[in-house]
Automatic annotation (TrEMBL):
Domain PBP: 28-339
Protein name stated in the entry: Phosphate ABC transporter substrate-binding protein PstS
InterPro entries reported for this sequence: PBP_domain (IPR024370), Phosphate-bind_PstS (IPR050962)
Classification lineage: Bacteria, Bacillati, Actinomycetota, Actinomycetes, Propionibacteriales
Organism per entry: Nocardioides fonticola
CDD domains: PBP2_PstS
Amino acid sequence: MNRRLSVVVRCLSAILVALGCVGSLPGAANAVAYAQIEGTGSTWSELIVQQWIADVDANGIKVVYTGGGSSKGRKDFAQGSTDFAISEIPYQGVDEQGNADTSNGRAFAYLPIVAGGTAFTYQLKVGNDLVRNLRLSGETLAKIFTNQITNWDDPAISKDNNGRKFPSLPITPVVRSDGSGTTAQLTTWMDSQYPSIWRPYFGKAGLTSYYPKKPGTRMVSQAGSDQVMNFVSSSYGNGTIGYVEYSYPVNKDYPVVKVLNKAGYYVEPTQYNTAVALTKATFNKDKTQNLSQVYVNPDPRAYPISSYSYMIIPTGANDPRMTTAKRQTLADFLYYSLCAGQTKAGPYGYSPLTLNLVKEGFSQIALLKKADPAVDLTDRDVRSCNNPTFDGKDPNNNKLAQIAPQPAACDKQGAGPCGTATGTNTPSTDGGSGGTGGNGSTGGTGGTGSGDPTTGGGTGTTGGGSGNAPAAIDPVTGEAITPVSSTTGGGEVYADPSTVLSADRPGDKKAFGWLSGFLLIGLVLIPGLYVAALRRRPTGGV
């Protein structure tokens, strides 16, 4: 009996080993092999990147990302200590401090990954009430961040706000102390649009990722977007203004400046206004971004300081850090990020990448397969891409730009300002004159407000649903979003199935259905046979 049991066990073990070998063979019917990848860089992009990492984790795609700023990301990648980096600016050749800023010979490509608007969040109080509907022109902002406008009662600020007066309060600009892509985005815009203001302050033309802080001024430096946001919103932050990605004030429920665009409207960087602006983004020969037409986009909805960050990916066939499994992890993570992951961009305060940027992203993903033909890119293209800005069957139709609402009449230069609060990630409206007190962003004309109109009403009423402010809009369907109620009785809210990642290739599920079945049979059968054999063994002497 022992001999027969031994034979059975060896046979079943051999079957299981063979099935395991089948499961490791290459081909469409095989599970994708993944290996953990690691990256560093942009804090501007970090909030949504961390969400994508959490989304794909259950599918075996393991990604570790640490912020630290764009400059750190580029340096780590160049030193070969990471598998990818995220940065708002490309390698500069030589940085502001005279140090080399190159990939150190490591082959790479720039891939558009996160789009958004550089927002100006601030704390300005009239009495005890926080102003939530501030408007500023680009020229006024440039002068604030070069210490030419230093008090909130400046006539230029009053003019931008259609004659409203603000308290005599010193302005404290809050800038980044670390090498920051957000700083680079801001200074690129100022250098392009306001060179006569920026260049004398900076001492030369061009951008910088290390903001120059002049001695003897009120300017304050903070490391990372989160610290800038925390400083501005702190109990001692009255009078401050800083620059961060729009997602930070949205998640903090804090106001942002409405910036004057080329069409003469003051707009904030909602997902819609940013997406519209980025339809004018083009590429330089080295695949870096050219935002010159984004800054002056004539569409009334366009937010002028819209941009996107790059993922810097390794493309060398002999890259010492890369394996087929790592490249596959990177490729599938990028596919999710460019496609289904973009459906989450809007709620987080970012903007879904537009078609022109997604197409460029796919051309860069293809370089991973060029470096290693074993990388599987089956069904990884624009046609299968669940991105809310376009339809894969009609990719030239920009869905998000079509449903993006036009600015309210009160946002036009010389009118208003609107009473609705900023930083809510919802479109501005003509209604809601109560501002923050009247909850005008959700209550429409019902929020009339009874307080000082400079601060938005303070004690205004909520509107009761009769106002004309639009409901939140689904960026995929263009329909108004209704609250999700639980159907299980336990309060669960189920994820939108369109956002769920599937890393399966054709045949994956079929192959692993029968494979897992055989494995299960083996695991159940072997112990059963062993127990049965023990029961049949004769008792007594040896």
